[in-house]
Amino acid sequence: MNNTPAKGSLACVGIGMTLGSHLSARTRSYIEQADVAFVLVSDGIIELWLQDMNKDVRSLQPYYQEGKSRMKTYRQMVEAMLTEVRAGKRVCGVFYGHPGVFAWVPHKAIETARSEGFSAHMEPGISSEDCLYADLGIDPGARGCQHYEASQFMLYRRCIDPSAWLILWQIGIAGDRTLKRFSTGEAHRQVLVDVLARHYPLDHEVVVYRAATLPFQSPRIECLALERLPLAEVGMADTLAIPPARPLEADDEIRSRLAALV
Amino acid sequence: MSNVIQFLEKVGNAAQWDDVTEGKLELALAEADIEGPFRSAILNKDVAQLQVLLQQKEPVCFVIPGEEEEEEEGEEEPGEKGQLKDARCLPRVRFASRS
Q1: Which chain A residue shows the shortest CA-CA distance from B72?
Q2: Superkingdom, according to UniProt (chain A) (predicted)?
Q3: Which end of chain A is less crowded, N or C, counting CB atoms within 10 A of the terminal residue's CB?
Q4: Tell me, what DSSP letter sits at residue A241?
């Protein structure tokens, strides 16, 4: 029996959000030393930047197509990377932000590579979530913080704690069940507002947020009343941050039990 | 074009550029041999114009489905209804048992 590990390997790395600002030395070396680098980033200029780091940089963008299921797109991206791993190459999947945060493709690629006996590694990066904490001045430890993909949040009943922050990702396609659109509109966002109205007053102030991708750019931080969200301009990279709407509620029973222990 | 990208990288990785004056930025752009239209776009913080000049459009950046549809072959995917498909999803991690 041959126990020699397969030669091909996969590293999925995160380059952070902002060009030049967030790339770690270790991530850069993964990109530079790979035989082939597949890239999926949030700004075309960042893709140009990455092209200088490896002689074989391949964009995953062409797999996206409006009207085509994104699940099919994602599976094709995984297959594109795995085909080169199986061919014995050192493959680097380069993703914006953190490759393991709200990112199906890197997780699936690593899982598949390992299941086939290849070495696979995930190298973390600075995520949009990290930038949000810095730009909005939120400490998730202060009141707690819940994160959901916006469509999943709408499609399933979740137990929301309105005394903590709530962050909804991919609000640009909130409510899209087809997985074939690159945007949804006012009507879909109205449904999202109706779901949120179960927990929050309509005049509750929320924040539409987008991290900066270029160094001289400012993040988008737009405050508006929840009820105004359907009419807001919302893009592919936007996130909704909802501040706590209620004070923390003391659990007197547990407090009494703990007091008795002292 | 590559000098524009190199300049952006230089600005991105050094804190000194955060509060640089317009005059100093203009001088740095000239020293880096950045051509007029690119220079104006950077000075005006005009991302849209810079993307036009570099012939880039906004890429699609969705990387996760809100709800996974099944594969044509009928393979189940992890994550649906909160279930992990199998132990391969957790190759490096063991969760501590509460018992």
Answers
A1: A72
A2: Bacteria
A3: N
A4: E
